[in-house]
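Narrative of accomplishments. A recurring question from our advisory board has been how the design workflow behaves on a single, concrete structure rather than in aggregate. To address it, we present the structure tokens for one chain from the evaluation set, followed by the sequence designed for it. No filtering or post-editing was applied between the two.
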């Protein structure tokens, strides 16, 4: 597979207090085949296909469950027809217990026939098929499942073995999250592999470090809980009752990180910049927008472009935070941005040529940071 670059074209219309800016930026991120392909692991995409069609960045790979959240084949077909995605990875089966009975392998493999139909329909595209997502199969069982699936998907590009605590086998394997050894060093399989943030919210992680650690992966999928219909990682709503599926803005905010973070400067000790505030599905206007958690008790702060232009302001949201790493003695004073992090970065780029911004607190600048990325502390 030869990939020369990824082109993402967004049309952003941002309204501010005194003026309107219409941005039609063209983002180009060159990479070689050895650097792998970025992707978005939609998984439950059957539930939010229109948002995917609207916001999927051209050239990026797309991941789905074939039927865990409803029939995904029509959505995959629509996305393929649009030309925005030409590389897909599709999981055929999921189990909440990670257990798969070999007696069910024929039924799992039969699902691959419809994916093979798409592979025939789009012969120049790459369709990778995964038999069981996050399985606990042993090596023999994993190879039997692969053989049965490939017999039904002979036009697919390849098979992906996706273990939980199960066996890795020869060929393509997929790992999830940001696995590390006891010393905190990233780990990965030997040989060709795929990686997905599946199970760990990418926006709460050090995406730059993860990208660097897995630059040799065939595909690097970003994932967010709302791709599975969960408002947050700890949302335990039963699958049939989930309503938190992603919208176009969330997809754009994830794809935006492929522009790179830039030359940021570390914030003061125990300050945290969250690119996406918590979203509990209540319609709270702060949801998904950046929040600055700082140690200075200020009435308000400003976000300022590198050329000194003020981009946005926010008053302190009270009371201050006294949990999650903060305390009554050292509270976290909260300031919520009035727009999404990627929108703030684009506004900065429009007026200064740089996506970086300073936090101005009581007349002093801190940073710069990229508001599309989390800074200060990470959940993984």
């Amino acid at each position: 597979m030869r990939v020369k670059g990824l082109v993402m074209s967004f049309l952003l219309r941002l309204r501010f207090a005194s003026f309107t800016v219409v941005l039609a930026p063209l983002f180009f991120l060159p990479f070689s085949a050895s650097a792998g392909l970025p992707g978005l692991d939609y998984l439950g995409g059957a539930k939010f296909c229109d948002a995917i069609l609207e916001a999927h960045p051209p050239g990026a790979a797309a991941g789905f469950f074939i039927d865990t959240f409803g029939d995904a084949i029509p959505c995959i077909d629509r996305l393929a027809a649009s030309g925005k995605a030409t590389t897909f990875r599709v999981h055929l089966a999921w189990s909440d217990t990670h257990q798969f009975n070999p007696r069910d392998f024929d039924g799992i493999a039969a699902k691959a026939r419809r994916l093979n139909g798409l592979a025939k329909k789009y012969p120049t595209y790459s369709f990778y098929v995964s038999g069981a997502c996050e399985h606990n199969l042993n090596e023999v069982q994993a190879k039997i499942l692969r053989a049965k699936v490939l017999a039904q998907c002979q036009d697919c590009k390849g098979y992906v073995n996706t273990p939980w605590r199960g066996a890795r086998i020869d060929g393509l394997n997929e790992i999830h999250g940001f696995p590390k050894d006891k010393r905190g060093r990233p780990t990965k399989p030997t040989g060709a592999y795929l990686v997905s943030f599946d199970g760990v919210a990418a926006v709460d992680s050090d995406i730059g470090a993860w990208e660097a650690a897995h630059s040799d992966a065939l595909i690097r999928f970003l994932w967010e809980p709302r791709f599975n219909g969960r408002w947050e990682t700890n949302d335990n709503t039963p699958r049939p009752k989930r309503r938190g599926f992603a919208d176009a803005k969330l997809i754009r905010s994830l794809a935006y990180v492929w522009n790179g973070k830039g030359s940021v400067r570390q914030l003061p000790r125990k300050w945290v910049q969250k690119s996406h505030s918590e979203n509990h599905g209540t319609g709270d206007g702060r949801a998904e927008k950046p929040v600055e958690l700082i140690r200075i008790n200020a009435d308000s702060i400003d976000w300022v472009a590198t050329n000194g232009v003020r981009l946005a302001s926010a008053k302190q949201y009270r009371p201050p935070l006294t949990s999650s790493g903060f305390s009554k003695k050292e509270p976290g004073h909260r300031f919520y941005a009035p727009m999404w992090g990627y929108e703030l970065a684009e506004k900065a780029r429009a007026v200064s040529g740089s996506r970086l911004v300073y936090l101005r607190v009581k007349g002093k600048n801190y940073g710069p940071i990229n508001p599309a990325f989390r800074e200060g502390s990470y959940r993984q």
